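Changelog note: in this version the structure field was regenerated for every chain. One regenerated record is shown below for reference.
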Amino acid sequence: MHGYPERLQLKMMLRKAECLVTLGRLQEANQIIRDLESNFTDRQTLAASQFQILQRTLCRLKMKVQEKETPTGTFPAALTTDFEDMNLREENEQISCASSSVTLCTDPLKGRSLIATKDILPGELLVKEDAFVSVLSPGEMPPLRAGLESRWDTRVTNGDLYCHRCLKHTLATVPCDGCSYAKYCSQECMQQAWDLYHRVECPLGGLLLTLGVFCHVALRATLLARCEDVGKVTRKLCDEISNRDICSPESKNLVQTLSHDLGGASEKNGETVEPPIPGCDVNGKYGSNYNAVLHLLPHTQNHGPEHKFLCALSVAALCRQLEAASLQTRRTSLKSSQPKAAVVPAMRQELHGWGVAMLRHMLQLQCNAQAITTIQQTGSKESIVTDSRQVRLATGIFPVVSLLNHSCSPNTSVSFVSTVATIRASRQIGKGQEILHCYGPHESRMGVAERQRKLRSQYFFDCTCLACQDGKRRAAAGPRWEAFRCHSCGELLQGGDVLSCGSASCTESASRDHLVSRFQDLQQQVGKAQKLLRNGKLERAIQLLLGCQHDAESFLSAEHSLVGEIEDALAQAFAALDFYFFTGDWQKSATHLHKSLRVVEVRHGPSSVEMGHELFKLAQIFFNGFAIPEALNTIQKAEEVLLVHYGPWNDEIQELQKMKSCLLDLPPAPEGPSV
């Protein structure tokens, strides 16, 4: 209105729209966006570079409007039509929280297992179970930085960012009135936690952090068991095993007693009738309840005496503190008229029963605890390419998930939303095949020997899955993502302390120690470059990474995991250059990320969740570079992979949908030579 140059008025309108979106005046913002799109018809007055900048800004603006207009928890109907599975389509009559596509079986060698009752397609939801108990892991605290900032400890952990009851990500937490540790997303969550367990845990916060998360889970499971009216079971448990191994699962009388009081076995004509499968009720149904938790194997005979002694000592210390806290609470409640003062059950006999139950749960946890994970973004929020990692958020007990046996190459994928675990088929499963889950040692992350050692030490079995059988035959060569290559001909090196070229026509050899030393030096250089990248020093990071790339090519396999790491960092650096300076380097970024994708595909497979995350990053690069056909094609591929592992309710899938919608609504690019 006051003579602002006409050629810059589009930029001013974009800025006005940005302000309106931030103020929440979406209707006015949408009108500005429509006016801007209509002004794009006069393309002859815009240079190609200016047009691309305006188009890019307009696209991001439309995505912001979509985010504000779309309430949390909604999702495009096009995807939910194919994946109407946030709830199980048909719940299993035999197993709660499981779909009708599976059945519960038992085997003398493998124990309980889930078997497919029909052909199962990739992405089908098989189990959706809320944790019977979950305890937030406090998480590691990053080191304090040197200088004046170290005077104030402003570091945060998961304990400060997630609700201690429902595990919801929360920035403005509601702290417990009685302790300095427990924090919640709302007053409702805080009150529910107090009523269920926290009134007992509240004075024990420091001790529980010292004793560890397993001790905390064991206590909370015992407290939650009271809600199922099983206090009498723990008392009978003490009576039955007063002079025996307190966690021995072999006592027939003990199991019968527990099963009867928890709805397990029943008496008929004076004879005890055992349920067909341990953990089931009298009707043969397996539920996500304390009965099922109690029947999880503690493997007492497999644990070493040191481990059993430490568990018993931890439980004894906890019971002693519970008794002291109970007496203090009783004294306070007698003197105070405050309604929140709760009388904690403190009779020695009851505490003895709690101790017995807690010790059993502690021994169960080594083989039955489930890590509840979440995807967290790494690096700065301003980074144009999202980099993420999976972190352990909490430890929980999922009785139904615990039914799944292990495979180093599983046919399912597990993900979490707050405290709810979802198990989906990651590939096609035929009728009669077993539903298999990975306990941690995966063929794409560990070699055969390391997997076997870990499974034997933690889970007390020798894995005989197909991946282990095939891996033993291929063990001599080693995985390609850890292999060294011949400097002369590029073939992979094989052997022990001295590595020889795998090519029959090449006589080159090298010392393993020398190559490992080079590899460690290269890792340090890559770490320095990544730090430069995080600090925004892009050109120096690129220069160092290109040197690392050249060095890696001389002695590492093309599919080596560190090669993929270097290419991924280069992709992020060039993408950032293009985003901030419009250099056109998104093409270089895409080239490097394609190389990283090849490494991920060799290591994890073309349909793996890791592949889905990499495709998501590639889609972001094409989107920000306005390579519309490439972006739409990559978005489709990323959706196909991620839907199988997460279903439609996933942040990355929703982001992909927004990108697709934005690209499809864009005005066409200018035709002919630009002015």
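Spot check on this record: Residues 72-85, 145-149, 245-266, 337-347 have pLDDT under 50 and may be disordered. The chain has 22 helices and 17 strands.
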